[in-house]
Amino acid sequence: MRIRRTSWTIWRVAWSLLRKADLVVVSWFIARPVFHAAVVTAYLMQKEHLSAAAALKSLRRISPGVHPNDGFMEQLAIFESMGNKIDRDSSSYKKFKVKFLGESFAKGEVMESSSYASDPGSATVKLPAPSNTIESGTERSTVYRCKKCRRVVARDENVIGHDVGGGESAFKWQKRGGKEGMYTQAPVCTSMFVEPMQWMTAVEEGVVEGKLQCVKCEARLGNFNWSGMQCSCGAWVTPAFQLHKSRMDAAYF
Ligand SMILES: [Zn+2]
Ligand SMILES: [Zn+2]
C-alpha cells in the first residue's frame, strides 16, 4: 500500500526548498494551485521583509488570480507573528503545527511518526544538568517525569499553551457545575496539553482518542483526542494531548 504523504510533510519540503529558492522555483510555484500561492507569499514575506498583506499584494501584480483561502491566510498571519521565519521553538509555530496535524487527521491523512516531536525521554536527547541556582541570563526550563517510574515524558518546549478559562465555553462549563460562587473562582488547569510526541504509541495507531500511558511503566498519564477535549479550566483544546499534572513530577533546571 502506498502511503500518501501528509500535507505537513509537503509544507516542510516546501519550506526547505524555498529557503534556497531562486526565481525559477518561485515561478514554478506560481503556476501551481492555491496551496503553493500561500508558500510563495510566505517566501516573499521572508525575502522582502513584508507583511502577509503586502506580500500578497505584490504577488498579485505578477499573478492577479492568486487568492489563498482563509486557512492559509491564518497560517500566513502566524508566519508573520514569528517574524517571517520558521522558529520551531516558538509557541505560535507549535500551535500551528498541532492544529495542522489535527486538520490532516480529520481529512483521513496517514500520520508519519516523523511529524511528531522527538521523545524527550529517549537516550539520544540530552537533558541539561540539574541546577539549584538561577544564573542570570539563563532561562530556566522544566522537565516532566512520570511520577511512578521517573521517565522523562515532556519538557517545557512540548507544552502547548491555551487561554486559561477559555471564555464563553468556560462560562457554560462552570454554569453546569451549578454551585453558587463558582463564577468568582479562578479557573485551574489540572492538566497540561502537549504536542504529540514519538513515545505516544497509542496516537501512532491512528485512532481518534485513547489513553496516554508511560512507555516505561505503563502508568496512565492522560488522554488524547484528535477531536478535542475540555481542560478543567473550561477551555477547549483541539486536538488534545493531555497529561495530568498529578501523574507527573516537574523538575526545574
Ligand atoms: Zn512511568
Ligand atoms: Zn486549562
TrEMBL record:
Which ranges does the record mark as transmembrane?
21-45
Q: Which InterPro entries match?
A: Prot-tyrosine_phosphatase-like (IPR029021)
Which leading EC class covers this enzyme?
hydrolase
Q: Does the keyword Amino-acid biosynthesis apply?
A: no
- The answer to keyword S-adenosyl-L-methionine applying to this record is no
Q: What Enzyme Commission number does this protein have?
A: 3.1.3.48
| Molecular function as annotated in GO | protein tyrosine phosphatase activity
The source's superkingdom equals Eukaryota
| Keyword line | Hydrolase, Membrane, Protein phosphatase, Transmembrane, Transmembrane helix
Q: Which PANTHER family match?
A: DUAL SPECIFICITY PROTEIN PHOSPHATASE 12 (PTHR45848:SF4), DUAL SPECIFICITY PROTEIN PHOSPHATASE 12 FAMILY MEMBER (PTHR45848)
Family, per entry = Belongs to the protein-tyrosine phosphatase family. Non-receptor class dual specificity subfamily.
What is the name of the protein in this document?
protein-tyrosine-phosphatase
